[in-house]
Amino acid sequence: MLEKGKINTGEFEIIVIIFTLGSSILVGPSLLASYAKQDAWIASLLSLMIGICFIFLYNKLTSFYPEMTFIEMTRNILGSWIGGLVSFLFIIYFFILSAGLLREIGDFLTTQILVETPIQTILISFILISMAGVKLGIEVISRTAIIFFPWMILMLALLFLFLIPEVEISNIRPIYGEGSKAIVRATYSSLGLPYLELFIFLMITPYVTNKQGLKKAFYKGTIIGGVVLSILIIFSIIVLGADFTARHAYPSYILGKKISLGTVIERLEVIVAIIWFFSMYFKLTICYYGITLGLAQLFKLKSYKILVFPLAFLLVTFSLILYPDIVYFQDFLAHTWTPYSLTICLLIPCMILFAAKVKQIKTNKESGW
Amino acid sequence: MWPIVGILLIGLLVWIIEIKTLLKSKSYREIIIYSFLLISGLSFAVLLALNIRIPTPLGFLNRIYSPIISSIERFLS
Lengths: 369, 77
What we know:
The complex is a heterodimer. Chain A is mostly helical. Chain A has one domain (35-355): Up-down Bundle (Amino acid/polyamine transporter I), CATH 1.20.1740.10. Chain A has helices at residues 9-21, 24-36, 40-64, 70-113, 119-136, 138-163, 179-191, 211-240, 242-247, 251-258, 269-298, 308-321, 326-335, 337-366, and strands spanning 260-261, 265-266. In chain A, α2 (24-36) packs across α3 (40-64), α2 (24-36) runs antiparallel to α7 and α4 crosses α12 (308-321). Chain B is mostly helical. Chain B has one domain (2-76). Chain B has helices at 2-24, 28-49, 58-76. In chain B, α1 packs antiparallel against α2. The chains are: A mainly alpha, B mainly alpha. Chain A binds chain B through residues 96, 181, 184-185, 188, 295, 299-303, 306-307, 309-311, 313-314, 316-318, 320-324, 328, 332, 335-336, 339-340, and chain B through 11, 14, 18, 22, 25, 27, 29-30, 33-34, 37-38, 40-42, 44-45, 48, 53-54, 56-58, 61-62, 65, 68-69, 72-73, 76-77.
């Protein structure tokens, strides 16, 4: 066992919620609204429903081999060569995701808050904290999540509460005005972020103590995260209007700027930024942890901690190499990300589930059933 | 110039610190993978510091998926 930490179902549920909120809290509204306009919230709820089907698939996979991570599972089912290839594809996908998350932080900070700071400084300082988390292991990451979770909830509640005076219900009308095709298009492009990315939790499920409660916690975490995301999208549409939401890169950040109660409480955009930093930190750390542990298990190393530093180096450089500029990044996210996620996070688990079923039937026959 | 020296210095320092414990426990597999990852990371970092434009690997992904993307988008628009 490379990882000796143990987490309970409550902690698991909280990290699933934070992971689901992750980067979508800032990028999601604009992506959805650009396709479905004022119906973006319908698309968001629809993609949550489809997302639950993915969780069903992942839960099925964990119930076959509850004591194994995804990497060990593939090796066990498909053998070391094909299994190794599948594991490699898995690791590459999450490497691209982690580099993208890091780049999102850098882009957000350099365009909105720290305009004069070079992006490398931000990337390096963020990866340093993330490195500390990964070195300490999953137990410490999830305990930290428990400390920050109430604050995130409090700040989200404050944000929604302060925005109530700014609401204009007419912005959401006409409901279903864009037709079903626009809604399906928006749903399709929001599948990849965040619901398919929850695949990384197959690296963490073996360390959850209560296997019965695990499935329920996985469903519950995803649903809570998805509903909060949908509420946020509804708020950005009814406060800012569909057009503005679609046009701006970070509409929920602008939501914070809209707050004004009397003349006492004004411009609380930093609330949104803080929520986002917390959720982003945990999303990045979990992905980073997953690829580190995955690489160590793929090459059968004795400890995964040794890979943390070289991977940090690679992540920082590749977040600059993979996405030459912010336009390329947004374009990649809007077009290539969803089909790519569908192949890695839907096709591969389906195939492995099929192979596991076949293997189960075969061993049952051999043992005389 | 200075960024390259800094990158190489940090890389070398961490390499020396981490490789010592690995050599003591005679885990050669770890040493090979660790050194390979670190050297590739360092070389990419140096290329970035020299302002050499490296073609993004995502272009490859875009090319693979472009027939699927165009057919899906035609279907949904």
